[in-house]
Amino acid sequence: MHRADLHLHTIHSDGVYPPSELVDKAKQAGLSVISITDHDNVAGVREGVAAGSQLAVEVIPGVELSTSVDGREVHILGYFIDTENARLAEFLRFLREERLKRAERIVEKLHSLKIPLRLEKVLEKAGEGSVGRPHIAHAMVEEGLADSFQDVFLKYIGFGCSAYVEKNHCNVEETLSMIAGCGGLSFIAHPGNAIPEQVLIRLIKAGVDGIETIHPSHSPDTIARYRGIAMEYFLLESGGSDFHGGRRNDAAALGQFTIPLSNVDTMRRRLFVHQK
Ligand code: AMP
Ligand code: FE
Ligand code: FE
Ligand code: ZN
Q1: What is the pTM of this model?
Q2: Backbone angles phi, psi at 186, to 5 degrees
Q3: Which of 18, 77, 106, 108 is the right S-S partner for 187, CB 3.0 to 4.6 Å?
Q4: What are 190-229's pLDDT values in tens digits?
Q5: Is 153 in the pocket of ligand 1 (CB under 6 A)?
Q6: Rounded distance, CA 70 to CA 65, Å?
Q7: Where do runs of H (alpha helix) occur along 45-188?
């Protein structure tokens, strides 16, 4: 089986495995190409690439960024980026600082709801990685303040809930040009059930290279629809498991949401065209 999974998280964002362990699990699942796509962070790429070279697993440098397009949250995956780019590093550092401020505000909101979650516990869960809502959920479960990870999202921190705080979303045009400026390709991550045409058009005009058609949240109909859109607008196709490990999905998800290596070859050809 020669397949690729281009959407994976590590401890450098809200995943539970360090990059080398993730690569090991990917190998065991029979994957030959993967991408590490942590939220607002590329710190796991170097370790992943090194582990991959030991195990003959190709690790494509990646990142996942949250943007806002006409009032909708749209996640963008960047692949083949130069992770040493100074502008990128500064941009990501800013986003991680904003995440920290947001985590503080969520904890304050929880306190006003009489939930005594300590910020230190959340930061302990996040470690060196970009802090996010999953760390808050894990911390609350561990502290006995909630019954389950899902419960925390449903009752407190999910969109519109009492302790919900919106994240700082990047401007999508800036995000796509940042990725292109780092020599990378950008993909619309898990567009889900309905992406309004105006949003799609704006993304295409801003230079998006492709669309993540394969994702655990996509039904066969959804996949077919985005495949059609990709063909119609000359977009490339990507896909992956969005694996985080732990309470969200276990290692069984690895190898279940994949794309053929021919899709990765097509990406490389597109990169070649960009470089001209
Ligand atoms: P954040 O980037 O801090 O807003 O957190 C978003 C992350 O939380 C996503 O990437 C998922 O990993 C996770 N997530 C979002 N919504 C849910 C949910 N309803 N249940 C479980 N995990 C979720
Ligand atoms: Fe995540
Ligand atoms: Fe996402
Ligand atoms: Zn993701």
Answers
A1: 0.95
A2: -115, 140
A3: 77
A4: 999 878 989 999 999 999 999 999 999 999 999 999 999 9
A5: yes
A6: 16
A7: 45-55, 86-112, 119-126, 133-142, 149-152, 172-181
